[in-house]
Amino acid sequence: MGRTIAVSGSASGIGKTLAELLRKQGDEVVGVDLRDAEVCADLSTAEGRIQAVAEVLERSGGALDGAVACAGVTGPTLLTVQVNYFGAVALLDGLRPALAEARAPRAAVVGSISGTQPLDEAVLRACLDGDEPAALAAADRVLETGQGNRLYPSSKSALAQWLRRVSVGPEWAGAGIPLNAIAPGVVRTPMSAPLFEDEKMFKIMNEAVPMPLNGYADAIVIAEALAWLVSPANSHMAGQVIYVDGGAEATLRGPSVF
C-alpha cells in the first residue's frame, strides 16, 4: 500500500518534482504551497503555518508516513528567514505527532551548500533561539548594510543546525522518526533561473559553488535523494546533512571536514 507524505513547496521546483516522483511510486502526496496544492497556505506567517499543519492533519487523518520541507525562498528579503527556517521548523514540529502515529515515519528538509558559506551570526542565533521577531530585526539590519546575500546562507545554516540538534532527541529519534536533510548545490529550478540569466551572477555562482561532478543538477536528482530519505529503507540515518552538490562541499571545505 502507498504511504501518505506531506511535501511543502509542491507547486514548483524540487518540491513539485518530488511530489510527482512519490505519486508515481504509489504514494499519496499532500502538497503545501501558496497555490496549486492540496493545502494552500503561507508558511511565511504564523497563521499560515498553523493552517498548513491543520489542513495536512485533516487530509491525512492524523497519521502521516512522511513529511518533507521543500518550500524555500532565495534573495535579499525577510521571506528568506521566515519561510526557509521558521516555516520549515513550524511545519515539521506541527506534523511530528502525526508522524509518530505511523508505522515507519520519516522526515526530511532541503538544506543547501549555501549553509556552509558566510552568514550573519545574529540572524543565525535568533533562529536557533526560536525568536522570530529578533531574527527579522537582525535580518533588517543585514539588509540595511547591503549584505542581504547573507540571509539565505543564514537561514539554511540555522535549519541544518536545528536538525542536527533535535533529530537525535526524544521527539524524533526517540519516537522512531529519522530526520535528515539533502543539501543541494546549484539546481536548475525556477528559483535559480535568474542566476543563469545574469552574466555577473552566473560567474559568482560558479565561483561560490564549484561542481566538478556532472555540473548543475536537475530537480529530479534532489527529489530522488529525498525520496530515499523518507522511504522505509532509511531506518537508521539521523541528523545527517547529505550534500548532493556535484562535489562542491568537499571542494570548498576540503578533506578534513567530514
From TrEMBL:
SUPFAM superfamilies: NAD(P)-binding Rossmann-fold domains. Pfam families: adh_short_C2. Keywords: Oxidoreductase. InterPro entries: NAD(P)-bd_dom_sf, SDR_fam. Belongs to the short-chain dehydrogenases/reductases (SDR) family. This is SDR family oxidoreductase. It comes from Actinomadura napierensis.
